[in-house]
Amino acid sequence: MTSVSWAEILPTLLESKSTIIDASVFALTLTHVAMSQQDSYLLATSRQYYTTAIQKVCAYDRVINPHDFIHVAMILAMYELYTCVPGDIQSWIIHVSAACKFANQCRSSDLSLTGHDLYRLRTVAVSFSSLSIPSLLLLYVKL
């Protein structure tokens, strides 16, 4: 299995019926456009979508598909990479850690992630040495 970038799955997420995924994708895409166009209005709008996504994450309940939850955490991690101060990736680490922690706490039957999802999550976690590899991911992903 080859590594697939989280950014490569964004087009498939546009078909999602999930409001939390929508808010996350809007935040990320607006940030990208705002940065490339140096548009402060779009950047502020992206921050509103980001805040909405974070509020939905904080209000998490079983209504949110665990699959969507992991995707949201990784989309928000990409958002943080766009908006972070150079050299300060603490917010990125928080989102990736949350995705890993959530995956670790879910029963495998609740976590409807594909092998590619698990591999991507594990790859991101391993790439940053201070993140521990969730044992759940090790069960499903072979090197």
UniProtKB/TrEMBL annotation:
Pfam families reported in the protein's UniProt record: Fungal_trans_2 (PF11951)
InterPro entries: Fun_TF (IPR021858)
Name of the featured protein: Transcription factor domain-containing protein
Biological source species: Talaromyces rugulosus (Penicillium rugulosum)
